């Protein structure tokens, strides 16, 4: 079953986003392939964060997160945010970062982005669904999304099966 589903998921070829959050000035972010709009009115979006990721700890400790929609030119961003850990590596170094609603760190190099104010957290297994109201958005011009098929050379920084210990479930 899992192999068949994997081949279906490969054909779906999800677009990729980078999710960011900051807690008391400490910034974290990771590459995310699990994400979608969940409501039209109110306007809501959902990202699924792996419990193994440092970004999960930071994002679930604050009210707002940034969601950056990557374009076909953003392979470098996908490599940095998808293969390293924010606890040991400053993924924001050398980039222009602004502070969005709720202190969500926003990568200025990404023209297409939204900010979510969290409305729900749902345990889905090794990932947690973070649902939020879309409280800010920029970049209305069309773009070509970076998709999974373009980054098959990258290995995730954390295996989703490596769960954060329960003691680490909040960054606080
Ligand atoms: C193609 C690809 C898709 C990924 N999708 C997700 C995802 O949907 N959710 C998630 O939490 N992590 C996902 N990851 C894993 C994180 O981006 C990766 O483990 C990252 O290094 C975690 O960084 P952090 O520890 O700073 O949060 C994906 C990684 C890759 C390479």
Describe the protein in words.
The chain has 172 residues and is an alpha+beta fold. It is 15% helix and 35% strand. The protein has three helices and nine strands, in the order αββββαβαββββ. The chain has helices at residues 2-12, 54-59, 75-83; strands at residues 17-23, 26-32, 35-39, 44-50, 64-69, 97-99, 105-107, 113-123, 127-138. The strands form two sheets. The protein has a seven-stranded antiparallel sheet. The termini are far apart. Mean pLDDT is 93; it is low at 165-172. The structure holds flavin mononucleotide. The site of flavin mononucleotide has 23 residues, from strand 2, strand 4, helix 2 and helix 3.
Structure keywords:
globular, single chain, alpha+beta, 172 residues, binds flavin mononucleotide
Quick summary of this structure?
The chain is of the alpha+beta class and 172 residues long.
Strand-helix topology:
Blueprint: H1 2-12, E1 17-23, E2 26-32, E3 35-39, E4 44-50, H2 54-59, E5 64-69, H3 75-83, E6 97-99, E7 105-107, E8 113-123, E9 127-138
Antiparallel strand pairs: 1-2, 1-5, 3-4, 4-9, 5-8, 6-7, 8-9
